[in-house]
Amino acid sequence: MADEITKFPPGLAAADEAAEQFTYGDLIDHQWLNQAFEVQWPEQGTRKQMERCQLQFMSEMDRFREALLTEYRMALQSIPGKGYRVVPVKEQTSVAMKQCRNRVSRVLRRTMQELEFIQYDMLNAEERQNNLEAKAKVAFIGAAARRRKVLPGN
Predict the structure, then answer these.
(1) Are 103 and 50 a contacting pair, CB within 8 Å?
(2) Are 96 and 154 contained in the same domain?
(3) DSSP secondary-structure letter at 122?
(4) What interhelical angle do 47-72 and 30-37 show, nearest 10?
(5) Other CB atoms closer than 10 Å to residue 11's CB: what's the count?
(6) Which of 24, 47, 62, 153 lies in the 20 to 30 Å Cα band around 56?
(7) Mean pLDDT over residues 106-135, rounded?
(8) Is 1 exposed, middle or buried (0-12, 13-18, 19+ CB in 10 A)?
(9) Element housing 7 (H / E)
(10) What string of DSSP letters covers 18-74?
């Protein structure tokens, strides 16, 4: 045990362990992840304590996901309320493209909101024109992506 080398942070060590323990199609549940990431959720904690645990979990999850993908070629798909599924190789392309479509759509929607919900009365004529042009560009990108099926799965 004294000669054993462990990776730090826990998300990296968890990726090694998961690659040995799980295979394509398996579900890695939240309980396993919390234990592997060494997240100690309080039974009755303050909001700040819960947020700290959530941040720790998400930080380790990002490391875990990245290491599992790049070192072991195992992609993960979130299964709400359960955990993460190791995506079978034959599904990896379609799952990646669906996730891409969702992210792109979310970014375009959020960008349009930020452009639309603005204090126009505080802008001068040039700034209003820039805003109008920016909205047109975002709308064009979204329409072009849908029309040309650039967004995967559309």
Answers:
(1) no
(2) yes
(3) G
(4) 90
(5) 24
(6) 24
(7) 97
(8) exposed
(9) none
(10) HHHH--TT-EEEHHHHHHHHT----TT--HHHHHHHHHHHHHHHHHHHHHHHHHH--
In this prediction, residue 1 carries a pLDDT of 44
Structure tokens at 67: 């290491």
**pLDDT value, residue 44:** 87
pTM: 0.76
Residues 119 and 149 in one domain: yes
- What is the count of structural domains for the chain? 2
Q: How far apart are CA 118 and CA 14, in angstroms?
A: 44
Largest CA distance in the chain: 70
Do 140 and 110 touch, CB atoms closer than 8 A? Answer: no
